[in-house]
Design a protein that fits this description.
Blueprint: H1 9-23, H2 28-31, E1 61-67, H3 71-77, H4 91-96, E2 99-100, E3 106-109, E4 113-116, H5 122-133, E5 141-146, E6 150-155, E7 161-164, H6 172-178, E8 186-197, E9 200-206, E10 226-231, H7 233-236, H8 244-261
Parallel strand pairs: 6-10
Antiparallel strand pairs: 1-2, 1-5, 3-4, 6-7, 8-9, 8-10
Length: 263
Amino acid sequence: MKQTSGFPYGKLILLVLFIAFLSSCVTQKQVKYLQKQQKEDTTSTFANKRLSDYKIQSNDNLYIKVVSLDDKSYSFFNKQSANNVYDYANDAAIYLNSYSVDDSGYISFPVIGKLFVKDLTLDQAKTLIQTMINEYVKETVIIIKMVNFNITVVGEVRKPGEIKVYQEKINIFELISLAGDMTDFANRAKVALIRQTRGGSKVIYLDLNSEKILNSEYYYMRPNDILYISPLGVKRWGFETFPWVVIFTAISTALLLINYFKI
């Protein structure tokens, strides 16, 4: 006649498995963006700094185009000929036809010569160039944009790599969406933004789980930013690749054997 064993091995193993399963799960709180800090907080409007505050720096490349009804004025102030519509057909062509800001902060512009644009916003640089050109020809329109607006996203996103931005401004969520969104194992509470400053590289940690990011001065991206999304601890100890099926099968077999041979 079989007797019940004094020590509940089966229950102990099941308890260990249950604890391991819970510790390996990613909670909803860890993957939700823009969580309210307080239930009574109903704020829906957030102020933040936009790309218009960006100051032109050395080694930036600027796309500058002077639009005029006069063909001669057009050819004077633009690098490409008026009839060559393929000069801006791809990124490399745009780069080669752009104006590079030298180490001293100047660009060399046709007819006008050297212009100091460092630490000016795009709007300020546009006004400066427009004022200078008005001395030579009237009724022109200036178009100026950043050429080297590239941002790198690495870590726990579905499509890491360098992203080229073809708009005047882009916020951190738009950037992440272009990278295919974060994976379930991304640490949204500690996203590292690496930004170039005059003194070197600066690392800022952002919490995308909190609504406070909408008020942050780092909400909008700047050219040459790097965004690193680190993994959660669950990912680091290998939950995704660990052979859980083999482990569960072995433990289930062991439980059956213990139950069959107990005295």
